[in-house]
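Ticket opened by: R.M.
Priority: normal
Category: complex prediction / small molecule

The reporter submitted a protein together with flavin-adenine dinucleotide and asked that the result be attached to this ticket for the collaborator who will pick it up next week. Submitted input follows.
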Amino acid sequence: MAEILVLVDHADGAVRKPALELLTLARRIGEPSAVVLGAGEAAASIAATAGEYGAATVYVADGAEFTEQLVVPKVDALTQLAKEKGAAAVLVTSSGEGKEIAARVALRLGSGLITDAVELEAGENGPVATQSVFAASYQVRSTVTHGVPVITVKPNSAAPEASSAAGTVENVTVSFTGNAAKVVARTPRVSTGRPELTESAIVVSGGRGVGAAEGFAVVEKLADSLGAAVGASRAAVDAGWYPHSNQVGQTGKQVSPQLYVAAGISGAIQHRAGMQTSKTIVAVNKDAEAPIFDLVDYGVVGDLFEVLPQLTDEIGAR
Ligand SMILES: Cc1cc2nc3c(=O)[nH]c(=O)nc-3n(C[C@H](O)[C@H](O)[C@H](O)COP(=O)(O)OP(=O)(O)OC[C@H]3O[C@@H](n4cnc5c(N)ncnc54)[C@H](O)[C@@H]3O)c2cc1C
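Result attached by the on-call engineer:
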């Protein structure tokens, strides 16, 4: 069966959820092999998890290079494995780092690259990827026609499904090409305790309608009651009410959660470009004519300072 290499994204010794989604999708197009890089002592437990989610083989490579340098060592490892194993495709999570790795691997392999896929299926000529483009106005289905397809997949594109496989660990020695940018310092990000915006299954976003930085308190309270990440429109970010890292949209982050709640957001095309692939969209806006209502599954016409606290209380009461 065609071997599909899946780069397993991990943090703090645990597999990140998007990697489990990739393993689930990989089973639709072939036999998944997990690639675990720079995990140190956590490699064994990460490999075991990959096996539980369908990896027949887990390639494990360690080395200071993976943590001391930026993406190039991972590119070296994936390129080497894709060539040595005759992989039928390479799957990487659609994060900033993931897309850079994928682009470099595709270049080195002389292959075609598809980014931000939201669906994968087997086709006669290799994997068929679906992308959602032009602010999710169109769905595009593409196949790579040259070389080993390298595909990045957006988080939340599939629900992770466990499927026990051998998970046979194969240690790999990577020949590093060097020449990579080196990490000279690390500053831990101050944790809000909330899930990562692009990975979260639920996102609650606030826009100019929250009125001030303090207005985000009602958005955060609703997010916390749902275990959600907090997003913001560019208008709210530009006003200095919320950090740029939380901006959703064309020039912000692309999110595709199961549930997206837009509070006090009008629904400009540039905002839609970052959230329109969300599975269920709910908007709270006091203007019944706001364009966001054209794309919602559920819309509440009302003042967010009245609606959100009631919703938070109701969720807390259940
Ligand atoms: C090149 C470019 C890139 C851009 N990239 C992005 C991007 O990445 N992300 C992004 O979001 N935007 C982006 N924008 C900006 C975008 O065009 C809009 O200006 C922006 O999304 C508007 O943000 P908003 O909906 O919060 O504000 P507004 O459009 O001002 O809407 C505020 C809404 O809140 C409602 N409201 C007010 N008070 C309340 C209340 N108390 N209760 C309920 N509702 C209330 C109003 O009825 C209104 O609909 C970009 C623009 C450009 C030109």
